[in-house]
């Protein structure tokens, strides 16, 4: 038994402004009391990607109101809050400054502790908020800026088993969509187009499949898509659908191989875990084809497949508040008000930086 904790979370690392109040009850269970997310999709869509300066300005304009709204929905005031948790990295530095400074200001004004949270830790611990999952477990984070396979051992204890050596998976979807003339963000557009396509028509490459390491690579796939599209000029709607379906098939096969190896490694190193689990997070986890591939893989390998609801897979502040709650409950020290935002901040400080991984540094 531990005292119930109410935490205010703030998230501004990329193109979502978010505020949330969560409760960690005395049994350690998580409850989302108030949660608001404002997407900046419209501000950025004309540019085909996130524009850092526009993002930072939009965070400034919205954050105060969103925090008020989250508190209101939770039915609490700042005096009921036990700590403030703000994303302080990795991400776009302008946005991080906005969220962290706001967190600091609230901490200063209320005298409450501040936790400067690693955004990736927010993703990594979400399955404990939603499903009360026990450590250790394996997480596949697939978003616009990251593609990582991470062993989650405990709060603050992460081992990166694999990462992309070039493009993140979401980035591969976005770039593929762009070169096929589909709208931004590319993932949902590619998935929609693929519904009418023939996944067997193109045999796209599956880089690193069979490789003993657990890393990922997607830039060759993107190049193959470009070459296929160029060879068909002018491309028809059916061509686009077929390319999208074949692209998703190549990714499915890649994930099956890479993640499959990760599951084997988990079993070899953590054989005593009674119910091993794979958690997926990140915007790409919305993709139904990839989800069902992972689900089947887990079923065949004796793993539980845990995909938190989509609103908690993509960027949100409830996961940041929860990470703060986990840190506070574990007796970890709060951060000083001099803590600095970090555009790069790997979860696993021991992991070697790989060429290109997280190179946009912007999105998680
Ligand atoms: O986690 P997220 O919402 O934002 C950050 O990257 O921080 O992920 C966004 C990424 C984008 O690259 C988007 O194209 C991709 O997730 N995405 C998808 C789908 N929905 C979003 N990719 C494939 N299939 C989808 N249905
Ligand atoms: Zn993220």
UniProtKB/TrEMBL annotation:
Domain named Gcp-like: residues: 31-322
Keywords annotated in UniProt: Acyltransferase, Cytoplasm, Iron, Metal-binding, Transferase, tRNA processing
Cofactor-binding details, from the entry: Binds 1 Fe(2+) ion per subunit.
CDD domains membership: ASKHA_NBD_TsaD_bac
Cofactors (names): Fe(2+)
Location in the cell: Cytoplasm
Main location: cytoplasm
Its EC number(s): 2.3.1.234
Any one biological process term the GO annotation gives: tRNA threonylcarbamoyladenosine modification
Residues binding substrate, per UniProt: 141-145, 174, 187, 191, 287
InterPro entries in the record: ATPase_NBD (IPR043129), Gcp-like_dom (IPR000905), KAE1/TsaD (IPR017861), TsaD (IPR022450)
Reactions mediated catalytically: L-threonylcarbamoyladenylate + adenosine(37) in tRNA = N(6)-L-threonylcarbamoyladenosine(37) in tRNA + AMP + H(+)
Residues the record lists as binding Fe cation: 119, 123, 315
Pfam families documented for this protein: TsaD (PF00814)
Keyword Ribosomal protein annotated: no
Residues annotated as signal peptide: none
Gene Ontology molecular-function annotations: iron ion binding; tRNA N(6)-L-threonylcarbamoyladenine synthase activity
Keyword Metal-binding applies: yes
Domain of life: Bacteria
Cellular-component GO terms for this entry: cytoplasm
Similarity remark: Belongs to the KAE1 / TsaD family.
Function of the protein: Required for the formation of a threonylcarbamoyl group on adenosine at position 37 (t(6)A37) in tRNAs that read codons beginning with adenine. Is involved in the transfer of the threonylcarbamoyl moiety of threonylcarbamoyl-AMP (TC-AMP) to the N6 group of A37, together with TsaE and TsaB. TsaD likely plays a direct catalytic role in this reaction.
Protein name: tRNA N6-adenosine threonylcarbamoyltransferase
């Amino acid at each position: 038994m531990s005292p119930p904790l109410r935490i205010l979370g703030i998230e501004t690392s990329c193109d979502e402004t978010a505020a949330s109040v969560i409760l960690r009850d005395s049994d350690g269970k998580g409850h989302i009391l108030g949660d608001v997310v404002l997407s900046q999709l419209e501000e950025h869509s004309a540019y085909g990607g996130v524009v850092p300066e526009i993002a930072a300005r939009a965070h400034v304009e919205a954050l105060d109101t969103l925090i008020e709204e989250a508190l209101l929905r939770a039915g609490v005031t700042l005096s009921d809050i036990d700590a403030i948790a703000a994303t302080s990295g990795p991400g776009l530095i302008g946005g991080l400054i906005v969220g962290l400074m706001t967190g600091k200001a609230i901490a200063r004004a209320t005298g409450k502790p501040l936790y400067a949270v690693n955004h990736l830790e927010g993703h990594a611990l979400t399955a404990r908020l939603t499903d009360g999952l026990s450590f250790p477990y394996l997480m596949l984070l697939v978003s616009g800026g990251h593609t990582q396979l991470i062993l989650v051992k405990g709060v603050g204890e992460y081992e990166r088993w694999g990462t992309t050596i070039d493009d993140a998976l979401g980035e591969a979807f976005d770039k593929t969509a762009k070169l096929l003339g589909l709208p931004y963000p590319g993932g949902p557009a590619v998935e929609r187009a693929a519904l009418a396509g023939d996944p067997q028509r193109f045999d796209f490459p599956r880089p690193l499949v069979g490789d003993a390491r657990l890393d990922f690579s997607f830039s060759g796939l993107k190049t193959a898509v470009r070459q296929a599209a160029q060879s068909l000029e002018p491309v028809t709607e059916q061509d686009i659908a077929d390319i999208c379906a074949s692209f998703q098939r190549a990714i499915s096969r890649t994930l099956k191989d890479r993640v499959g190896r990760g599951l084997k490694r988990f079993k070899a190193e953590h054989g005593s875990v009674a119910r091993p689990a794979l958690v997926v997070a990140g915007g790409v986890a919305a993709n139904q084809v990839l989800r069902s591939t992972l689900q089947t893989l887990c079923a065949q390998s004796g793993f539980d497949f845990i995909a938190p609801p989509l609103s908690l897979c993509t960027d949100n502040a409830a996961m940041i508040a929860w990470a703060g709650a986990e840190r506070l409950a574990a007796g970890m020290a709060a951060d000083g008000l001099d803590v600095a935002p970090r555009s790069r901040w790997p979860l696993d400080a021991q992991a070697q930086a790989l060429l290109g991984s997280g190179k946009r540094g912007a999105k998680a």
